[in-house]
Write a structure and sequence with these properties.
Blueprint: E1 2-7, H1 10-16, E2 27-33, E3 51-58, H2 69-81, E4 89-92, E5 96-99, E6 102-112, E7 115-122, H3 148-169, H4 171-180, E8 188-192, E9 198-206, E10 212-215, E11 221-224, E12 228-231
Parallel strand pairs: 1-2
Antiparallel strand pairs: 2-3, 3-7, 4-5, 5-6, 6-7, 8-9, 8-12, 9-10, 10-11
Amino acid sequence: MRLVEDTVSTNADMLALVDSGLSEGNWLRARRQSGGRGRMGRTWDSPVGNLYCSTLVRLQPSDPLPHTLALVAANAVHALVAPLCAGQARIKWPNDILVDGAKIAGILLERAGDTIVIGIGLNVTDHPRDLDRPVTSLAAQGATDAEAGALLDRLAQIFAHWLAIWRAQGLDPVRTHWLLNAHPTGTPMRVQQPDGSTVEGAFDTLDRQGMLILRLANGESRAIHAGDIFLI
C-alpha cells in the first residue's frame, strides 16, 4: 500500500498507473485530496482524517460483468463499517453506504481498457454539515478511535475476500450478500435518470446482472441501469 500526503484524486493517480503493470492488490491512500470526485462528476469533500483510497482489478475473460465490482466493493465497505457504527449500516444502490439513512461512504468505479479502478471515500473523523442530505462519519457513530490507515488494512483484506468469491463463484453469492445488507424490499425510492427524467417506485430486487429492479405503482417492474437514488 502506498500513502501520499496530498493529491488531486487517488482514482486519477491509479488510472495513470494502469499502463505501468501495477498488479491487483495494490492500494493507494491519500491523507487529503484536493479534487476528490464522486459519481456524476460531483466533488467529494476531503479533509484530513478521513479515508480516501483506490485499488484496481485486472479483468479476466471469465470474470462476471465488470460493473458488478460495485457490489463487491459495497459488500467490503459495509463489512468494514457496520460493526463500528451505533446505527444500522445499509448499502444503497449503486454505490453508497448509509447509516440510519445518512451517507458515510461512497464508491466510484472507472474503467481504463481491461482494468477497473475502484475508489472509496469513507468519512472517519469528519463529515460535511452543509449538504442537502444527511451525512455522518465513524466518529459521529461512536468510533472515535478509528484511524484511516488501520481501516484500509482491514478493507483490503475484506475486498480481496469478496473479489475471490466474485471470480470463483460468480455474481450470485455477492448479490445475495448485498441484498441482505441493502435497503429492504419495498423501500420507496425516486430515481433521477441520466437523461434528467425521474421515476418513483419501490425497491424490488437486483437482477442477475446487478441492475436495480423498481416496482412501479401500477405493478410493473422497471430495470434501472444507471441513476441517482433518493430514498423517500
